[in-house]
Design goal:
Elements (H helix, E strand, L loop, with lengths): L1 H25 L1 H10 L3 H12 L3 H8 L8 H26 L1 H19 L24 E7 L3 E6 L24 E8 L3 E6 L3 E6 L13 E2 L12 E7 L5 H5 L2 E6 L3 E6 L11 E2 L9 E7 L4 E6 L3 E6 L13 E2 L10 E7 L5 E6 L3 E6 L13 E2 L10 E7 L3 E7 L3 E6 L13 E2 L9 E8 L10 E3 L6
Antiparallel strand pairs: 1-2, 1-3, 2-6, 4-5, 4-7, 5-10, 8-9, 8-11, 9-14, 12-13, 12-15, 13-18, 16-17, 16-19, 17-22, 20-21, 20-23, 21-24
Length: about 475
C-alpha cells in the first residue's frame, strides 16, 4: 500500500509537469516571444501562469525547458511519456481500490523472493545454551597483570610495552598518589586461571579475563572490590594455571610457598581447585611472619631462596614433602639475624637457566645456576651478590634466560623494560653492574620478567607506571 501510494504520487507529479510542457510545445512561438519580452525569469513565470492558467511548478518547468525539446521529435516524446504515465496512474489507482489485486501482487513478489533466496538455512540455531562458554568469545591473548602497593589491579595487552637498552632511566607517567607504587607484575593469557595468595596465607580464585582491563595509564580496580580480601590483608603472590577441572593436571602439579622468615611449604594444586567466595587457607602463618611468594611446580623442580643479606640456597623440591593447606611448612633457609628476611623464591626446571639478582640501589647481575651448589633445605646458603653500602640490600631473585625481558619498577613509579641478554653472565659473588639509574632517595620496588615478543621490540623505549596508574 505505502509503496503504491508513493509511486502514484510521483507519477501524478510527473504527469502534471508534462501537461504544462505539452501546453508550451503547442504554443511554442508565443511562449518563446513571451519569455523574450519578460524582464526576468520571475516575470516570465507570472505571465505564463496567468496566460495559460498554469501552476507555479509547470511554469518553472517551461522556463527551464531545454532547447532540444522544441524539436518535433522531442514534442512527440513528451506526449508518449504523458500517455504512458496515464496508464500507470490508472493501474495504481485500480490496485489501491482492489484488495484481491493487492494480495495477488504480494503473492507474486514473495514467490520471486522465494525462488531467488530460498536456499536452506546456513546458520544453526541452538535452543540450549549449555555448551556456551564466555571464553569462546574472548581472545586468548597475552596480557600484563599489574598490582600496586595500595592494592589496585588491571590487565593490559602485552603489546603496549616496549624495550629499552640497559642503563636507561625510563620515563615518568602521571604522578604517584599517596606514595603508591607498582609492586607485582605478571604475564599471562586471558583464558588462564589466577590464584591470589595473601600475606596472611589465604588463597582466592579468578579467571584472567575477569580482571578489569585498562591501559598503561589507567588506575585499575581495587582488589577488595573483586575478591573478598580482609581490609588489613593484601595480595603478595599470584600464579596462572591451566584448567583446574582437569584431574590429571591438578594432581600432578604443586604450589610451593615461601615466607619472609624462611619457611617453605608444598601443597598439591588439587587442594586449590575448589574456590570459595571468601577464599581458602593456603598456609598457616606464624606471628611476625607473612607469605612472600608462591610458585607452581611439577614436583621435580629445584627451589632457590635468597635473603636481604646477599645469600641464596638451592635444594631439590623433593626435600619438601606435600602438606595440607593448613600446615605452616618447614624451614627453607636460615636467616642471618632478626633484621634479615627472604626477598625471593624461584623454582627451576631448566638446569641451563641463569640466576638474576638485583639490589635496591639498581645493581644487578646474572650468574650460572651451577655456581650455586645443591645443599639440604634449611641451611644458610652461599653468597649470591656482594652487599655494600653502594649496592644496598638484595631485593629480587629471578630465573632468566636470553629469551626473557626484564621489567624493573622503582618506588617513584618509573619503570624500564630491558633485554636480559644485555646483562653478561658473571660470578655469583661479584657486585654486578648498574641496570637502572636511580635518583637520590629512590630505590627499586619490584622486578619482573616477561617473555620476549619479537613484534614488541620496536621504537618506543619506555614503560610508564605509577601507583595512580597501576
Amino acid at each position: 500500500m505505502k509503496r503504491t501510494k508513493y509511486e502514484l504520487k510521483k507519477a501524478e507529479q510527473r504527469a502534471h509537469i508534462l501537461e504544462g510542457l505539452i501546453i508550451a510545445s503547442d504554443n511554442i512561438d508565443d511562449v518563446i516571444d513571451l519569455i523574450k519580452k519578460s524582464s526576468n525569469a520571475e516575470d516570465a513565470r507570472l505571465k505564463l501562469e496567468k496566460k495559460y492558467k498554469l501552476s507555479e511548478i509547470q511554469a518553472k518547468a517551461i522556463i527551464e525547458m531545454r532547447l532540444r525539446q522544441l524539436t518535433g521529435l522531442e514534442q512527440n516524446k513528451l506526449r508518449e511519456e504523458y500517455d504512458e504515465l496515464q496508464k500507470v496512474i490508472k493501474g495504481f489507482k485500480e490496485l489501491l481500490d482492489s484488495k484481491s489485486m493487492r494480495m495477488d501482487l504480494i503473492k507474486e513478489e514473495l514467490t520471486v523472493i522465494k525462488d531467488k533466496y530460498g536456499d536452506e538455512r546456513r546458520s544453526v540455531i541452538e535452543y540450549a545454551g549449555g555448551d556456551f562458554r564466555v571464553e569462546d568469545i574472548i581472545p586468548d591473548e597475552k596480557v600484563v597483570i599489574t598490582i600496586s602497593h595500595a592494592g589496585y589491579i588491571k590487565r593490559t595487552p602485552l603489546t603496549e610495552y616496549k624495550t629499552q637498552n640497559r642503563g636507561g632511566v625510563g620515563q615518568k607517567a602521571s604522578k604517584t598518589r599517596d606514595e603508591d607504587f607498582l609492586e607485582d607484575l605478571f604475564v599471562g593469557t586471558n583464558h588462564q586461571y589466577m590464584l591470589f595468595f595473601t600475606q596472611k596465607g589465604k588463597c582466592f580464585w579468578m579467571r584472567v579475563y575477569e580482571i578489569p582491563e585498562g591501559s598503561k595509564n589507567s588506575k585499575g580496580r581495587a582488589i577488595q572490590n573483586l575478591i573478598n580480601i580482609e581490609q588489613d590483608d593484601r595480595v603478595k603472590a599470584f600464579i596462572c594455571t591451566q584448567d583446574l577441572k582437569d584431574e590429571d593436571y591438578v594432581n600432578s602439579n604443586y604450589v610451593i610457598m615461601a615466607t619472609k622468615m624462611g619457611q617453605v611449604k608444598k601443597t598439591s594444586l588439587e587442594q586449590y581447585s575448589r574456590p570459595r567466595s571468601n577464599g581458602i587457607n593456603a598456609i598457616t602463618i606464624k606471628d611476625g611472619d607473612e607469605l612472600l611468594e608462591a610458585k607452581l611446580t611439577n614436583g621435580n623442580s629445584q627451589i632457590m631462596l635468597a635473603v636481604q643479606s646477599g645469600k641464596a640456597i638451592r635444594f631439590e623440591e623433593s626435600k619438601t614433602r606435600p602438606m595440607g593447606r593448613n600446615a605452616s611448612g618447614v624451614r627453607g633457609i636460615r636467616l642471618k639475624d632478626k633484621k634479615d628476611e627472604v626477598v625471593g623464591m624461584i623454582s627451576v626446571n631448566d638446569m641451563d637457566a641463569n640466576i638474576l639478582v638485583v639490589s635496591e640501589n639498581g645493581f644487578g647481575k646474572r650468574s650460572s645456576l651451577e655456581d650455586y651448589r645443591l645443599t639440604n633445605r634449611g641451611g644458610k646458603g652461599v653468597k649470591t651478590i656482594s652487599i655494600t653500602e653502594k649496592t644496598g640490600k638484595l631485593v629480587s631473585l629471578k630465573s632468566v634466560s636470553d629469551n626473557d625481558d626484564l621489567m624493573i619498577i622503582n618506588k617513584s613509579g618509573i619503570a624500564i623494560r630491558m633485554q636480559v641478554e644485555d646483562l653478561r653472565v658473571m660470578g655469583r659473588a661479584t657486585q654486578g653492574v648498574k641496570v637502572i639509574s636511580l635518583k637520590d632517595g629512590d630505590s627499586i620496588a619490584a622486578v619482573a620478567k616477561v617473555m620476549k615478543d619479537e613484534d614488541d621490540l620496536e621504537d618506543v623505549n619506555e614503560i610508564e607506571f605509577t601507583g595512580d596508574t597501576v
